[in-house]
Write a structure and sequence with these properties.
It contains seven helices and two strands. The chain is mostly helical. It has a two-stranded antiparallel ribbon with strand order 1-2. Its main location: nucleus.
Length: 209
């Protein structure tokens, strides 16, 4: 009854039951209470088709005159202005907080400065070594890199040869579009091929034929 008086708007039994559901009150109990309030003249029911709504007794409310309404309107306008000012201040504080969070603290600035200074010294040492003609890569390291490169190049050439041999045998009597069997990845102006593995190629051919 207190909630209906505070809101002072039409309600039905279901709306009241939904509001009180969190307290474990069922719709049947709500209906009984509302019927009792209606019998005591606290609320009144009115039917709108199949919908039945109830309202609090309007005689309990004081109806303000024009002067009171004007005063209430001015008070409402002032409250809205106060709310707008508070929201604006909150927005400024949030903006300042985000800015403070993104800025480094003094300790973080000192630490970062030391790290960058160390990196600069390291790079200057390398630059100075290059200017003096120092050898940064030893002959042993160069031979090691060359051996690894030659090994991978040899493996690639063997795979390429196997692919071309299989490709020639498979496509010799094919009538389908050969593009469906190719796996080509053109990444540069040079001829760069990504070749399917032999098991993948044979499985595809079995499905094709």
């Amino acid at each position: 009854m207190i909630g209906m008086g505070q809101q002072n708007r039409p309600l039905n039994v279901q709306m009241v039951a939904d509001a009180l559901q969190k307290n474990g009150i069922k719709k049947t109990a709500v209906q009984k209470v509302m019927d009792t309030l209606a019998a005591n003249g606290k609320i009144s029911f009115k039917d709108y088709g199949k919908q039945r709504v109830c309202m609090a007794d309007q005689t309990q409310f004081e109806i303000p005159d024009i002067d009171e309404l004007d005063a209430m309107k001015k008070q409402n306008d002032q409250l809205l202005a106060d709310v707008a000012a508070v929201r604006s201040r909150v927005s400024e504080l949030e903006s300042g907080l985000k800015s403070a969070e993104t800025n480094l603290t003094l300790d973080a600035v000192v630490k970062k400065t030391k790290e960058l200074g160390s990196e600069v010294e390291t790079m200057e040492t390398k630059v100075q070594a290059l200017r003096e003609g120092s050898v940064l890569v030893t002959p042993e390291e160069r031979l090691e890199v060359q051996a690894a490169y030659d090994l991978k190049l040899g493996v690639w050439r063997k795979r390429k040869k196997i692919y071309h041999e299989l490709w020639g045998m498979i496509t010799e009597s094919m009538t389908e579009n050969l593009k469906d069997l190719k796996v080509i990845n053109s990444k540069s102006t040079n001829s760069h091929w990504t070749v399917a593995s032999v098991p993948e190629l044979l499985c595809f051919c079995c499905r094709t034929f």
